[in-house]
Each structure stands twice: as structure tokens, then as C-alpha cells.
Amino acid sequence: MSPFAKNKSGSVAALGEEKLIALIRRWLGAVSPPAPFGIGDDCAVLPATGARQLITTDPVIYGRHFDDATPPAAVGAKLLKRNLSDLAAMGAQPTAAVLSITLDPRVSVRWLEQFYRGLAATSRRWRVRIVGGDLTQAKNFVGAYLTLLGRATGPRIVTRTGARPGDAIYVTGQLGGSQLGHHWRFTPRLAEGAWLAQQSAVRAMMDVSDGLAKDLRALTPPGAKPAIDATAVPVSAAARRLAAHTKKTPLRHALCDGEDYEIVFALARTADRATFEKSWLHAFPRTRLTRIGQFVRAGKLPADAINFDDYHGYEHLKG
Fold first, then answer.
1. What is the pLDDT of residue 319?
2. Other CB atoms closer than 10 Å to residue 298's CB: what's the count?
3. Under 8 Å between Cβ of 74 and 1
């Protein structure tokens, strides 16, 4: 569905800012608390917490993160879920969010209502309060920017750094072909991320948003290389379907497409992998976990390992 109305009477320009904000409050419902804990004041007031706090931000922009083929409710859901994936990658849980939205005056009120109702439904599912934000106008542009606050679920926050040569590399789920629908149908791995943060053998982790070929570089320790077995990479059925049309290999789609929103992490080489994998299966029987390789010292890369110089994920502002 296009975000633009066919005539002015159905657009946000016919409402104006004050009426539109009143509608947004209605569309969000209970996930937007009354002022001063939500929309209505210059700032929202949040309760103090004893846990360490985390913050992340990600947008959805028309023509980049969604198009007319994406249902507007799914756009709102994706906006929150891609931020939730960032928290999951550090073992955190969400608390509250603020949303700044930029609209062309021609944007359809019907489209915007479905966007906010999708955001509200996802917020209720993950217990996130939308406590404020901003509304502004632009020409020929539709974009929403969400800033999400979270809290640590335990004493440990796992970052991208910490992996060492010899550590095993694991990834959740399947990879590739996200543009066939997974880019908005995914489930953020919040429970899995929190569980992984509790495992002392997990040394580093991050979410796969720009493609494993790019994201894995951020996880790789200095002086090391990822030795990945191509046959071990969990290639999705969507990646295989897409490859039939693009003439690229399914593996290339799995490594480069991005927007998988899975978790890749390093497990200490001293860990008992069999016990770890058994514990994972007990905790998450429906979430696939795959060991795809290990980090090795530079110069020790096996001849049959993937050469990541031949693969590139999505890089902003390039190409």
C-alpha cells in the first residue's frame, strides 16, 4: 500500500498537526501512557531502574526499508522489531521508546493509522511503552525514527568484542532472501539473546542486519580470521528461491542480503559444545542453532574456508 493519499481529503494535510497527534494517541492506545509519562510534555518522565540501561536507534524509510508491497502495519512492526533485535544482540530487554516521524503532507491518514496500529500491536507483545517523540514535515519523504531504551537482564552485557582465536562461531535461524518477506516478518531473538548473555562461555555476539559477510568482521578478534565452512551456513529456502531469479548463488544471498535479524556469536574454545547445544535445544527447541566455523589466527585459514574478500554485505553510503 502506498503511503500517499490519492486526494488531499484523505491526507494528513487535511488534519493538521494537533488533530493528527490526537489520532496518534488513539491509535497507540494503552502503549502510550498519559503525560508526564508519555506524549504531552516536553519530555517524558521514566521511572528509575537499578539495572544498567541500554539505548539504540534505527529508522524505517520509504524506498529503503519498505515499499508499496509492505503492509503499513508491518512497517510499524518492523520499525520496533529491528530496534528490538539490537537489544537482543546484547542480552537486554526493552522498556520504553520515543518515535520521531517525518511526513510528506500527502501521506494517507489510512496508511498512517495502520502503521501506528502495527507499531502498537508489536509494542504490546514486547511490553514497550511509546512515551513520546516528534512530528515534522518534509517534501517527498516518509520516514520514522525510533529510539529504544532497554535494561540488562542480568549482571552481564555481551558486546561485539571478546572473541578469541579458537572460539566457535554460531548463528541462529537461517540466512538470506530477506527481501521476499523476512525483512518484516522476522521475530527478534530477545529470549535467545537474554539466555546467551547468561552463558559465561559466550564471549561476543551481535545481530545479523547487514549480512553475515559484513557483520562477522565486527565480531572477529584482531589478528584472526573467520574460518567458515560453506556447507554449514544455514541457507534459507527464500535465498534458494531468490537465487533462481538473480542467478547468484544461494550462499551469496545468505552471506550478503542482510536484514536477517538473527544472532551470530562466539563460544569459547574451552566450552563443552555438546552440552551447550543440548542446553540450547532444551531452551529453544524451535530456534535453529548452527555452528558454522571458528576463528583462526591469520595465516592459518583452511584452504576450503569461505574467502570473505569475495563477499560483501550491505554498507551504508557506498554503492
1. 52
2. 11
3. no
Domain spanning 168-310, CATH class: alpha beta
CATH class of 8-152: alpha beta
Q: What is the pLDDT of residue 317?
A: 57
Q: Confirm whether pTM is higher than 0.70.
A: yes
- Nearest one of 293, 292, 56, 10 to 173, comparing CA atoms: 292
Would you say residue 318 has pLDDT above 80?
no
Peptide bond into 285 cis (omega under 30): no
Phi, psi (deg, nearest 5) at residue 94: -80, 155
Alpha-carbon Rg for the chain, nearest whole angstrom, is 21
- At which residue does the C-alpha cell 582465536 appear? 165
User: Domain spans of the chain?
Assistant: 8-152, 168-310
Q: What whole-number distance in Å separates Cα of residue 308 and Cα of residue 251? A: 12
CB atoms within 10 A of CB 49: 11
First to last CA, the chain: 28
Cβ(145)–Cβ(100) below 8 Å: yes
Identify the bridge partners of residue 119 per DSSP, sorted by sequence position.
none
